[in-house]
Amino acid sequence: IGKRTSESLCFFLIEVGKVEKTLEVLRQVLCEHSNFEPYAAFRRIDRRRHGLLHTDDIYTFLRENKLRHTTEDCEQLIRRYDLDKDDHLSFSEFLRIVLPLANKELRTETSRRKNYDIAVDEYLETDIETALARLLHREIIEEGRVEELRRTLCARPDYDLMGLFYLVDERRMGAIDFEVLKRFFAQHQMTMQVDDLVAILRRLDRNEDGSVDPIEFLYAVNPIDEEFQYKIFGEEESIIRRARRTEDPSNVRYMDYLDRTRVERGDRTVGRTTATGTPRKKGKGKKLAKAIGELLLVFKMIIRLEKELELVKEDLALQPDFNLIDAFRMIDVKNRGFVQPSAIQRELGRLGLSPSKEQVYLLVKRFNAVGDGRLLFVEFAEMIAPVSEEYYKKLTGRKARAVDFAGCAWDDVIFVAFCTENGDFRSGNAGFAKEGFLHTH
């Protein structure tokens, strides 16, 4: 990532923070009306009583308040807050639009107001109706402006989503929090105010956990406009995204793409019906294409992360003073023959890293084959060892320098010694678990 692209990302994030601060003011203005109650506001827009807000509901509400926007504008607003990707807003998702985030007292007080219903043909109080319409109107305007900034950033010749993410998350923690963001701006000789940094994080943090993961960053930076998708995702995923458009014969639909692929494979079970022989309902193909497109995007990110992780493992394997047994004993300070999440978190903290309990738990869960919430030595080795046979042999062939086995169970000592001598810790290669090994040796 070049300097100009890095500066463009800085500018983008600053503008995103300004957008969030503007909208926060409007949220607080709305909630300061003592008679504003979120559920009543939700029911006011949901005239058809679906229990959900669709594009048409928001479009109609804004028109009734003399604010003109296209259905595409309203769809973009829904997409911004639609966490479960079902193309409409639930009440909980609607709350993310109207409740303030920077004023906890006002947020709590508004949430506790007594619910009241509103008839299909009723309106809210004039001041509340106007404030709610202004908030939604401003959301659409500001999101449109941010979309233009996304396009500008995407147009950079060295644009790369994960490259941009790691430009901010330089320590590869997998998340962007307050300190990481502050450090990123400091590297660009920019001193940001606390409230500005918090505003940026609020806007990017979709699940409200206080940090921004790669998926959240992707949603924040990636342009919605499909003509930019081809540049980012390539031909196949671009085809999938084009399937989201209306059923126009000139467009390539994803179901047609699937049928064509089946024909090329020689699959004769090609048709426009479901397994029961009934015609597909309109809209289902587009929803399926949308879901598959987003799934492919996630897979693509996982592949890239795995490749980068493998490079880190290979670099570690080349360090002459690193071996698996010493690394394990560095965490297993009590010589119990296993490491728990708390021990891993403690050791990482000592090294200046600050992963959350949830992050460490997920790491252990991924490699814990037994499912007892802790890592045996063989599982720890599986986690650290590179896939490449060349680097794998370098690492596993290296002996421990000084290991104190005092207090270890004798079977642990035998098992570790055997694995070291044979240079194979992988359960898939070795073909045995610790218990099985002890039965036969």
Features:
441 residues; mainly alpha; two-stranded antiparallel ribbon; 22 helices; 2 strands; 1% strand
Helix content: 55-70%
Determine the N-to-C terminus distance: 54 Å
Gyration radius over CA: 27 Å
- Element order, helices and strands? HHHHHHHHHHHHHHHEHHEHHHHH
Q: Structural class of the secondary structure composition? A: mainly alpha
Number of helices: 22
Describe this structure in words.
This protein has 441 residues and is mainly α. It contains 22 helices and 2 strands. A two-stranded antiparallel ribbon has the order 1-2. Helix 1 (3-31) runs antiparallel to helix 7, helix 3 (55-64) packs across helix 4 (71-81) and helix 16 crosses helix 17. It is elongated and about 80 Å long.
How do the helices and strands line up, and which of them pair or pack?
Blueprint (H helix, E strand, L loop, with lengths): L2 H29 L6 H8 L9 H10 L6 H11 L9 H8 L5 H8 L14 H29 L6 H8 L9 H10 L6 H11 L9 H8 L7 H14 L11 H12 L18 H34 L6 H8 L6 E2 L1 H10 L6 H11 L7 E2 H8 L4 H8 L13 H13 L4 H4 L3 H7 L1
Brief sketch in words of this structure:
This protein has 441 residues and is mostly helical. The protein has 22 helices and 2 strands. The radius of gyration is 27 Å and the shape is elongated.
